[in-house]
Each structure stands twice: as C-alpha cells, then as structure tokens.
C-alpha cells in the first residue's frame, strides 16, 4: 500500500483532541495546524480514520501543495499532480474552493482553473476528449492560504458528525463531534454515573455510551471513498469494519441518564438511542433541572444548557442555570462539565470553575466550564485521570 498524506479537518479548538485520536489509531507522524491535523497513513488509514475519529469533520487525501500567485501557476501546479491514479475515467469530480489572504481571491475562477487542469491531465491519461462524469463522486478542493494552494480529495462525503443515528433533531442541536469532544475532555469513565439534565436530542448520553463501549462512530454510515474501488479497495473497508466490530465492548454496564423539560426532545432522544442500538442502555425522562435528583456518587454531569433558545427567553435560560447551580451544590462528589456561550455562567451558577476551555460551536464562541469534584479512590492510582 501507498504512504499518503492525510488530513483530518477539525472544528476550531479541537485540533489537539483530533490529534490524540489519530495517534490512538496508531499513526504517530502527526502535524497539528489550525483547523486540521495532517498525518501519514496508507489506504487502510483512510478507512480507519473515517470509521473511528469522533471529533474530526472529514478525512482528506492531500494531493499536493504549491505556491500559486497567478492562474498559470495554479493551472500548471494542479496539472502536475497524479489525478489519474485516483480518479477513473467515468468519475464525477466537482471542484470546491476557498481563498484567504491570497492574490487569487476569486474562488469561482480558481475552481474553474483547477477543473480545467485536471481535465487536461485526464485527457492525456485516458486518451479521450470528453468525460461524462456518471460514475463515483470524487470531490476536489482547492484551498488558497497566503498564496499557497493545497489540493485535496474528500474521502468522507457527509461530515463525520453525521453518525446515522439522529434522524430527527431538536432546536439548536449540538453536533455529535462536539458532544464526543466534551465527553473526552471530561474525567468520565464508564464505571461512573453520567447525567445530562438538558439532554435535548440525547447527543451527549449517546456519544458517551459509544465511547464507553468503544463503538466506532462511523460504523452505521457510508463514506464517499467506499465507491473508490480502484483507489481504496472494498476489501480494506471490510477489514476496517471487521476490526471495529471486534473492538466492541458491549458487556460493560452503563449508568447514563438524560432528562429535559421538553417532552418532544425526549421523544427525539429515545428515537436516536434506538437507532444507535442503545435504547436498553440509556435512560431518558421528562424532567426539569429543578426536580432532577441524580443517583450515585462520583458521577459526571455533562451538559449543554439551552441559552435563550429551547427554553424560550433569556430569563428562562438564566433561571435554569441558577437551578443547575443549586443541583450541583447537592452533588458534593460529582464533577460538572458545562458547555455554554454565556459569559455569565459562573455567576449564574454561583460557583467558580476549576478550569475553563474555549471551544467553538460552529462560529459561536463557547466555554467548557469544568467544576471538578473528588475522584473515586481507585482513580487516584491512575495519574492520567487527575485533572
């Protein structure tokens, strides 16, 4: 197999988590940049990364990178790349683009130049003057930054946050990738209770259960590169999926509960849990945060409180955060991880966070406030879990 440069694109603020996930897959030649993690892997790595990365957006093949301050440079640099090694004669190959701080600022013009250069390259390789583009889809992106063009092929298709279990959504749903990131940033482990008092469509509880049972998040969906049998053989996808099934740990008991004041949200959460194959393991109920009474000790409360959206208005949202603070005071052994865009969270909860981490929910700047309770006695033996 071929050693490739692969890129896992990342939401802002999650690059280090994506890099950690890549290393855990066994790929240690990793470079972290804003919004992306580049690593070296073969064709099997394409399959594994798409199936396993919980916090990345998509997996790209880096075809080439070169300086391009003129359209001639962009054309010649693109044409020099090995497109026929990947793209068959009947393929559909649309070109997407973006440009930032570059002389070639017209994105449509850059897309047109790249498309023309690839067509010329393929004409030479296949000895034909016309491509019907009726076959498998190969999405190409030209990204210009500081006059450097990076050309990639998208192996993923629909973004990796689309796991396949969420058919219905509530208002302002959290992406699955962000929910997984918040769980990974917490100190939660499967042996501890987990409670989400603003669970909405159930994304945090479902992602936590998938992490606990080591369920590959992409196991229930398909990817663009599954149709690329010449470049990424079907046998590699079969191998990667077999590895994922063999890695399941579905014998671990779980104590994961989600609640929400909105009955419709709980209906959506129950449907998503069923679609994810976790209906018997997760517990959801209609309940306000004021009436919530989580059971157990040394648990983790991990939540994304609605702020002025699902709760109706700003006053309702602030009242809910105050009630969350009251709830936290009754849970002396629990740790809290609260993801919110409001700058008043600590004031409204009437307690000081031990740690704060800036993250972005799309383009909205948010904060993960971490209120750290004591660890179970057994966890003190593992220094990796200590804050």
From TrEMBL:
InterPro entries, sorted: DNA_methylase_N6_adenine_CS, RlmKL-like_Mtase, RlmKL-like_Mtase_CS, RlmL_1st, SAM-dependent_MTases_sf, THUMP_dom
CDD domains: THUMP_AdoMetMT
Occurrences of domain THUMP (ranges): 45-155
Domain of life (superkingdom): Bacteria
Molecular-function annotations in GO: RNA binding; rRNA (guanine-N2-)-methyltransferase activity; rRNA (guanine-N7-)-methyltransferase activity
Keyword annotations: Methyltransferase, RNA-binding, Transferase
Full protein name: Class I SAM-dependent RNA methyltransferase
């Amino acid at each position: 197999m071929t050693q490739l440069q692969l890129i896992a694109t990342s939401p802002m603020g999650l690059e280090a988590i994506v890099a950690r996930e890549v290393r855990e897959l066994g790929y240690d030649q990793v470079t972290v940049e804003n919004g992306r993690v580049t690593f070296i892997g073969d064709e099997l790595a394409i399959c594994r990364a798409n199936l396993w990365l919980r916090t990345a957006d998509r997996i790209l093949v880096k075809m080439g990178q070169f300086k391009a301050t003129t359209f001639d440079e962009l054309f010649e640099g693109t044409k020099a790349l090995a497109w026929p090694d990947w793209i068959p004669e009947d393929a559909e190959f649309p070109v997407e683009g973006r440009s930032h701080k570059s002389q070639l600022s017209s994105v449509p013009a850059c897309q047109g130049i790249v498309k023309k250069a690839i067509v010329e390259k393929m004409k030479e390789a296949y000895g034909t003057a016309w491509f019907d583009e009726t076959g498998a889809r190969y999405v190409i992106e030209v990204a210009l930054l500081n006059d450097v063009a990076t050309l990639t092929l998208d192996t993923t298709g629909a973004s990796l946050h689309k796991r396949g279990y969420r058919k219905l959504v509530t208002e302002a749903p959290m992406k699955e990738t962000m929910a997984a990131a918040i769980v990974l940033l917490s100190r939660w482990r499967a042996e501890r209770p987990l409670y989400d008092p603003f669970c909405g469509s159930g994304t945090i509880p479902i992602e936590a259960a998938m992490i606990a049972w080591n369920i590959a998040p992409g196991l229930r969906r398909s990817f663009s590169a599954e149709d690329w049998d010449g470049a990424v053989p079907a046998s590699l996808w079969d191998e990667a999926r077999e590895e994922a099934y063999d890695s399941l740990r579905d014998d671990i008991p779980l104590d994961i509960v989600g609640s929400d004041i909105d009955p419709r949200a709980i209906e959506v959460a129950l449907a998503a849990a069923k679609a994810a194959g976790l209906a018997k393991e997760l517990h959801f109920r209609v309940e306000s945060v004021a009436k919530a009474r989580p059971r157990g000790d040394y648990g983790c409360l991990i939540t994304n409180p609605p702020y002025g959206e699902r709760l109706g208005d700003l006053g309702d949202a602030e009242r809910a955060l105050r009630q969350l603070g009251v709830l936290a005071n009754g849970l002396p052994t629990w740790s809290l991880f609260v993801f919110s865009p409001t700058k008043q969270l600590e004031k409204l909860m009437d307690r000081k966070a031990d740690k704060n981490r800036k993250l972005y929910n799309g383009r909205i700047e948010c904060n993960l406030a971490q209120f750290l309770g004591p660890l179970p006695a057994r966890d003190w033996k593992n220094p990796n879990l200590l804050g």
